[in-house]
Amino acid sequence: MTLINLNDLSITLGAPLFANLNLTISKGERIGLIAANGRGKSTLLRCLAGNIEPTSGNITRARGLRLGHVEQDVPPALLPVSMYDAVLGALPDDSESWRVDIVLDDLSVPDEFRPKPLGQLSGGWQRVALLARAWVSEPDILLLDEPTNHLDLNRIGILQNWLGTVARSTPILVASHDRAFLDAVTNRTLFLRETKSPIFALPFSAARAALAQIDAAEARQFDNDIKQAGQLRRQAAKLKNIGINSGSDLLVIKTKQLNDRADKLQDAARPAHQDRSAGAIRLVNSGTHAKALVSFENTPITTPDGRVLFHTGINWINRGDRIVLLGANGAGKTQMVKLVRQAMQGGTDSVKIVPSAVLGYSDQGLTQFETDETPHGAITNRFDIGDAQARAALAGAGINIDLQSAAIAALSGGQKARLAMLVLRLTQPNFYLLDEPTNHLDIEGQEALEDELLEHQASCLLVSHDRAFVRAVGNRFWVIEGKKLLERDSPDGFFEQAMGRAG
């Protein structure tokens, strides 16, 4: 049964986002929506929810269709409202308040969080509250915009399980940059593009491979068509000269026919799709002759009030190590990252740092930037770089001239993340300390960051819940278990445990 049908849907907001989109959403379908930052994913979901109108085309919805739309951000009016009341407010009838407790139970929300205002909850719990608001009204279809943002692995596991059990019969259209999540919960994949948006009856990774083959074939066909058109024009030019010299009308006619064929072939040729880059990500590795960059001698990792969370044991971070630090929430990952950063800055003697180490640091909250600081100031105040060079570097990172002098707070999450990567490159580090570096990066950006870390054989200690990123980048894995730091050959055991952990 068809629930939603899109016919030649186009949306232009300043510039075209997508055009001539045709899509049918039926029962049982789980569709992943893929596009780079700023290419229209959220706009399409809002259009389907009826919050904005398309530029052209039409949307046909089944009669009486109930849509559950989970946006990325909490509406400001809900921030002072308790989680329980926020979900209750999504019900058309307060007499069915019993539904609220059932939904919150299904989503494994602890009792102590339910009376708290949304503004006092973490980003992860705010996402859960928005999902509960959408689900409590028993929608016929769920529209999910980056549902795993701010969620740790445990909560992602709960969400995946919930989608596969409680909500298994409800179709979803999910915009996400979490590749492992998409593979786990989708059975179709739509690649949203400016002119032609292909869709595959496959989860993300398989669909991405199929799309790459089509793009490569189209690129070869385009090259062949252009090459053939050139050959026809060269043949026509030779015949033209012969025809002029011989006075042959037949050769003149043949020349025109060859040029006409070349024109038609060139007009029909279509270049392969190329995404408009959301901003380049490039890193460097300034190098060091030292083998061990960082060393720990059973260093205690403590809370700010001095409580010991775990001991590091005797461990080293060597040149070329890309160590992923894994552990449950509250295990001490952030405290260990902070301690290493302090040691790099000369603020502690409990961690040994080689003198030649140059730190490149970025955290998930991008706290290295002041909110009223501008992107231009963030570059020129930190580095000996001229105005023109700074503006060119920012433009290359996807921050256009209009935003370069605006407050960093005005940037999108993806633009802030790319600004952080630009600062990292200009720092010219030989050791990277990265806390959730893929937050807000689209799939293109995640893969670019992976390629840069691998190509430059960067040395790093990183924290990430992005399973695809961890598997692609890490070559050593430290897991916090109990009060010990243990090395594992693979992250998969931790992933399975973390995502299966209840509560």
Offer a few descriptive terms.
about 40% helix, 16 helices, alpha/beta, about 500 residues, 6-stranded mixed β-sheet, globular, about 20% strand
Description:
About 40% of the residues are buried. With about 500 residues, the chain is of the alpha/beta class. Strand 1 (about 1-15) and strand 2 (about 15-25) form a beta hairpin. Helices cover about 40% and strands about 20% of the residues. A six-stranded mixed beta sheet has the order 5-6-7-3-8-9, with helices on both faces. Helix 5 crosses helix 16 and helix 7 (about 205-245) packs antiparallel against helix 8 (about 250-270). The protein contains 16 helices and 20 strands.
Brief digest:
39% of the residues lie in helices and 20% in strands. It has 503 residues and is of the alpha/beta class.
**Multimeric status of the protein:** single chain
Helix content: 25-40%
Total number of beta strands: 20
Radius of gyration: 27 Å
List the helices and strands and how they pair.
Blueprint: E1 2-13, E2 15-26, E3 30-34, H1 41-48, E4 56-61, E5 67-70, H2 83-88, H3 98-106, H4 123-135, E6 141-145, H5 153-164, E7 172-175, H6 179-185, E8 188-191, E9 199-200, H7 204-246, H8 249-268, E10 292-297, E11 300-302, E12 308-311, E13 314-318, E14 322-326, H9 333-344, E15 352-353, E16 359-362, H10 375-380, H11 387-396, H12 401-404, H13 413-427, E17 431-435, H14 443-455, E18 460-463, H15 467-473, E19 476-481, E20 484-488, H16 492-500
Parallel strand pairs: 3-7, 3-8, 5-6, 6-7, 14-18, 14-19, 16-17, 17-18
Antiparallel strand pairs: 1-2, 1-4, 8-9, 10-13, 10-15, 11-12, 19-20
Helix pairs in contact: 5-16, 7-8
